[in-house]
Amino acid sequence: MIVMKFGGTSVMDVEAVGRLARIVSRERRPRLVVVSALSGVTDALLDVARLAEAGDGAGARQAVRDLHRRHEGMAAIVRATPRRASLLAATDALFDELEAIVRALAVVEEVSPRSSDAIAAFGELASSRVVAAALEDAGLPSRWLDPRALLVTDAQHGAAVPDRETTDERLRSQVRPLLAEGLVPVVGGFVGATAGGLTTTLGRGGSDYSAALFGAGLEADEIQIWTDVDGMLTADPRMVAEPRVVPCLSFDEASELAYFGARVLHPSTILPAVGRGIPVRILNSHRPEAPGTLVTRSVGEGEGGPAAIACKRGLTRIDIASSRMLMAYGFLRRVFEVFERFRTPVDVVTTSEVSVSVTIDDRRGLDGIVAELSAFADVASEDGMAIVCAVGERLRTDARLATRVLGALEGLPLAMVSQGGSRKNITVVLRDADAPAAMERLHRRFFESEGASAGRAALAIA
Ligand code: ASP
Ligand code: MG
């Protein structure tokens, strides 16, 4: 069986749900459909909670009515009259309940994390009703499931932690039989409940996490994440004219790229699936025929160059030289304690016998950091720096790749060069002004020129 998860933009309006129904219909394997709230709805629900907390009952109720109207409009996707009527009735019931909750909270002007979850959950509860009805209407026998009866979590509202064992048991006893009967179950992501039945949510963007948990529990052959882009790209399209889609990525590569702001997928959310060896495929619901990006535990090592390149801009470099000319025992500890005190994460670190260089993104503590470091070291800092990084499992096994990366950057002054212990990336720090040229050159070298890397990207379609 497979899990098909559709994000907010893939259910945002009647047209999108129509595309979804076609995609799910065309699939022949047994499948569980997981959906997000319609795009923007979770944000709107959290605004409702804020209005209630501020005591603006009228404003909160108006916002609920607007959401009610938007969901009513979605019923147009269902042609059969009785089915449409029952979808509208279910939608009315949901929004009436939401309005009652909001009215009460606005009176007491208090919204606890527990109430906030109760409100936020309505987005997925409502969108999943629409999708289940749309699938039925398209001729697919489907079954709406309540995520609160499936996904069991602890009581950390807003970031609830799943109880995998109990959830897996419920998936086996409640979902497997439906699949065996040939039904297509539809369930909202992001939402769960405590063993005692209190509604919880997994945290923003949590529908991917739900999909991974369900896929892992059902031992799915594949988890599909349907979104509105073709997959992970070889580079940020704001930096590179013609980025390509990366056909396959290892989990570690995807994690590395996420750190650099690739927002398609947060790898930590798919860990439950990848941990059990289940491949995750990112697909575009506007172009279902495009192959997308496949994320797996590991990728074969026989393939070409880096998987992708990434860039992080607007950084500050700090050079810290031991005043005693040689780094004494304990020097590094003292240096990093300063960053810890100022709660400033460090991105890249390079060291030599006498000095350490680091880059930071968050400059708020910079003056204090420099002052404290100056007590025991010579310190210089420079703004306007950037990290450019090539990511790929292949960097670990092909010694020539690092040289080729640096070769592509010839002539650009490099402030720092680093290849970490995992050796899945090679990172350089250079002037921010040089970052666009560095990205263009690397992209041309590895992803554009004739047979450049014979790499993974070469297989992809733009
Ligand atoms: N609707 C939730 C959110 O916007 C969960 C999700 O879309 O993944 O955060
Ligand atoms: Mg969303």
Explain this structure.
The protein is of the alpha/beta class. Helices cover 41% and strands 22% of the residues. The strands form three sheets. It has an eight-stranded mixed beta sheet with strand order 3-5-2-1-8-10-11-9, sandwiched between helices. The protein has a six-stranded antiparallel beta sheet with strand order 13-14-12-15-17-16. Strands 4-6-7 form a three-stranded mixed beta sheet. A hairpin with an 8-residue loop joins strand 10 and strand 11. It starts with a strand and ends in a 14-residue tail after the last helix. Magnesium ion (MG) is lined by residues 8, 36-37, 42.
Distance between the termini: 29 Å
Shape: globular
Round the Cα radius of gyration to an integer and report it: 25 Å
Provide the structure class. Answer: alpha/beta
Overall mean pLDDT score?
Answer: 93
* Estimated share of beta-strand residues: 15-25%
Small molecules held by this entry: aspartic acid, magnesium ion
| Main beta sheet | 8 strands, mixed
Count up the helices: 15
Based on DSSP secondary structure assignment, what is the total number of beta strands?
17
Taking strands numbered 1, 2, ... along the chain, how are they ordered across the largest sheet? 3-5-2-1-8-10-11-9
Helix content: 40-55%
